[in-house]
Structure formats: structure tokens, C-alpha cells
Here is the input.
Amino acid sequence: MFKAGAAKSIITPKVGTCLYGYVPHHRSESVHDQLSVTALALSDGEKTALVMTAEIGNLQTELSDETRAAISARCGVPFENVLISCTHTHSAPNLAGTDGWGEVDREYFDEFFLPGAISAAKNAVESLVCAEYAVGVTESRVGINRREQRIDGSIALGQNPHGCFDPYMTVISFREKATKKGILNLVHYSCHGTAAGLNREITRDWSGILIDRLEEDTGTLTAYYNGACGDVGPRLTNGGTTGDIRHVESLGGAAALDAMRAYKALGGYREAKLDIFPGELSLPYQKLPSLETALAGAAKYEHPETLNNLGRLDYAHWVEVAEHLKAGKCPEKAPFVLPQTLISLGDVLFVPYPYELFSEIAMRLREYSPFPHTLVLTNANGTLGYLPSEDQLCRGGYEVECFKVGHLFALEESTDQNLINGTLGILRENGML
Here is the structure.
């Protein structure tokens, strides 16, 4: 018999903590709204899974593994059945630790995040009751492709009305079967949480306004799960991809109207068959460039100690490549093997990836998937940077450069198709295709 349970824990940091997403050491001065982590527990009496969302930017892969292991030990849910995704707000503490964006705030992780995640998961599992679910979908223009192409052909962060973005907002409503009392409204949409810009308020960004409104209007706990947002920013009135708290509130209000429209479009409630599909994705790497290329890449920076963000990431990459080759190590590497767990619930499929995927990848996967509601979860079970669609690599831009230099070895240019093929392969191995 299908069961569901949900719980939320507050994980708001102390004022003065550094905010992740733009520059290191950018400290908060106030709290605009509370951060939280929400856990959705799903069970059929034999197997149990947790699908969680945390209102932070990214969660370093090592910290994600530590959190999932702690939850598994405390709740008795297998490690691989615990999915933790991030809403990707840029106004929360740094738990990513990406070179150029500042170090991980370990004190915040130990004091707030880890206890909060364990508590939410534990309470969700303990609240499991016989349940049913319904799905509603609407179109939303909260997001817009953010890879703005200038007149000279270069790509900048802004708004691209001609570019791809996923227009679908999905609401999945869970309720108790006997009493019809709401358990959780799960809102899925794909968009960066950058409306607040380089602000000093702690905030969930625009999605916080959305879930508060829907929760108040329906009387049911509500949580936001971000999709393939790699090339999608908030559709702000200033024409950019960042704004301030006023933009957070206005865009969040528009998003709330869309979410309520999806909620009102809910189909009939029904029980669900829970399936869990474990597997692996094999993602080949590119061969390293020559030592001369690596040395030239590092030499173009005269004062590397002053670098932040992409500049620092680029410099550190070329230094690492040069050191690797100078040590006589192989310029080739076996494919990256990514553990993967897919969770299906009736006609819904949750697909976690530890990347900021470009929207087209998720839309193609949904087209090929046997599940009508195939929901990609972004920055889930770790964070490994941007993953562009192959057609955008020739255009360059911030996300593409991060993909190229984010790690010692860059993934193949056709990684988008490799990712889709691997995911469909897991479904095929389990008799779903």
C-alpha cells in the first residue's frame, strides 16, 4: 500500500554568514525569509525512499554523501534511496566549496544543515501514512534563457528571448487517503535563484514567495524542487538575470499565481506504485591538452592571487593540468562512473543529476521517457558544475567555460546525449522501455 510523509526543518544561518553565489566573503546583514530543508518520504511497505530539497545554492558532493549516509543510518533508508537536491538560491551559506567562490562553511553545515536534514528526514519517515497523489501542470514564464547573445556574437548573462527554457511548472499534491488531509505540495520548475542579485539578505529567492503563498492558500506544507536550470534565469523586469529583493517579491508573486493555476488543474487523486531503479551512468572524458597549452593558459594571468569566480577556476585548472602532465601522468582517463537512482511514482519519474543541466537536456529526456511527468532534479546528490547541451559549446559563455575548466578532465562534448542514453538504459534494464 502506497504511503507518504513529509516534514520540514529550518536551517537559517546566523546573520553575518557569507552568502554563496557571486564573490567570496560577501556577508549577510539580515534575514528576509527563513531557509529550510524539506523531506518527502515514499514507501510501499517493502521499500522506502526520501526525495529531499534544501534551500541552499549547492551541496558539495562529499557533504551530500555525508548527509545521505547520516540520514540512512538514522532512518533505515538505504543510502542510494536518499535524494537531496538544492533549490539553488544564491543568497544562502556556502556549502559548495567551488574554487573561486569561497570555502565551505563547515560550521554552518555541522550546526544547522546536517541536523536539520536528519530531522526532516526522520520526521518524514515517522509520519508515513496511507496516501494518494495528483498531478497538475501549467505553463509558466517565470524563467527565461539567460544566455544573451550580443551583436558581436558573444554570450553574456542576461535574457535571451530566442533561447530554450522549459516552460512547464508541475505541482504534485500528496494527501492522506483516509482523511484527505494534505501532506505535501511538491512544486517543480527550472530556474536559477538569482533574482535577489548581490544582496545582503538571507533569502530563498523568488521560489520562497511562491511556496509560502501556495502553502497559505492550500493549508498544506509546500516545497520547491528545481529542475534543469543551467541556462535559465529569472525573467526580471530589468532585462537582466539579477535584481534585488523587490524583484524577488514581484517574481515570486507571479510564480505563485502559476503554481495555484497548476494546483487547480490537479487531476484525480489515486494511489501510486513506487519503484526504485538503481544504476550507473558512464560518462567518457576528453583527452588532456598539451603541456604547452596548459602553461600558456596559466601564464595569461599576471596576478592569480586576485582572481575570483571563473578567472580563478580557469587559472587553477591550467595549473592542475600542467602539474599532472609534468608528473608524467597519463593524459587520458577512464570514463566517469556516476551512481544513479531513479524513483518512479505512478506516472511520475524523479531523475537526480549532480549538475546544472541546460534545459534542453531535460526536455529531450522527458520526450523519450515512458513517464509523462519526468522531473529532473538539479544539483542533486552533489554538485559537479554546469552541463551544457552540445549545440551550445561552440558559442562559449560563462556556463560553457565552467564546463570546460571545472575539473582536471573535461567530459566529452556529447555528454548530454551520454547522460540521456545512460538514464534510458537504466529504465530499459528494469523493463520500463
Remarks:
- The chain has a mean pLDDT of 97.
- The CA atoms of residues 279 and 340 lie 5 Å apart.
- The first strand starts at residue 3 and ends at 10.
